[in-house]
Amino acid sequence: MSQIGSNIKKLRKVKGLSQQAFADLFGLTRGNISSYEERRAEPKIEIILQIAKYFGIPVAELLQKQLTVNEILNFEDYFEDSTLPVAAKNMSAVPFIGRESFLHADQKIDVATLPQIYFPIYHKQKFLAVENCSFIPKPLVFPFEENAILFFEPVEIAILHTLDQHYGVYWGADELFFGQYQTNSNEIELILNDWMKTIFTEEKKSYFWKLYGKFERVV
């Protein structure tokens, strides 16, 4: 028997979400969530996949296992957009692109509406934090764990000579992907694969970011 209904209810309570708040995360109604929890219906597979991705839970466990509170908390591997604690006042506020940014395909990712995370990271430039999730295209060989938080610094003219073979992210008007920089003569490309790459130009430099560091949860 599927455990999806009871697991949704437990996830919701552990995370402190009302049925309406949980529904809003995935474009559903409060009635949908109620019917799932009472086992009168089950979510479609695409909704199950979204829930699994959002909370970082393997799909098989979400469907088949009665998750405990400790297991749900141990799956926690992303930053909450919550009230800023006093200790965070001396930390940097970093715009964060996480898996929840992709739940509504019709919404454009806008830096002005991104949540911010607070991290002890300091630099004269503004940083960008991006969660390595399946929604973002990446090279076939990408040496970072799923759900790791990657921190990027903007590419400025002064650091162009440091880009070769380093990883980066391209965030343009309608495009977002991880890639690896490659320098050929006076041309610099950020390469996703043989079919998708983009050339660095000064006019588009605000779209290019270089990997600065990473945060991974140790288990």
Quantity of strands, as a count:
9
User: What's the CATH topology label of the largest domain?
Assistant: Umud Fragment, subunit A
User: How many strands, what sense, and barrel or not for the largest sheet?
Assistant: 9 strands, mixed
Structural class: alpha+beta
Proper CATH architecture of the largest domain: Ribbon
CATH class category label of the largest domain: Mainly Beta
Distance between the termini: 29 Å
Could you name the ranges where pLDDT drops below 50 across 5 or more consecutive residues? 75-84
Mean of residue pLDDT values: 82
Domains counted in the coordinates: how many?
A: 2
Spatial arrangement of strands, main beta sheet = 2-1-3-4-9-5-6-7-8
Beta-strand share of residues: 15-25%
Form type: elongated
Q: State the order of secondary-structure elements, H for helix, E for strand.
A: HHHHHHEEEEEEEEE
Query: Tally the helices: what do you get?
Result: 6
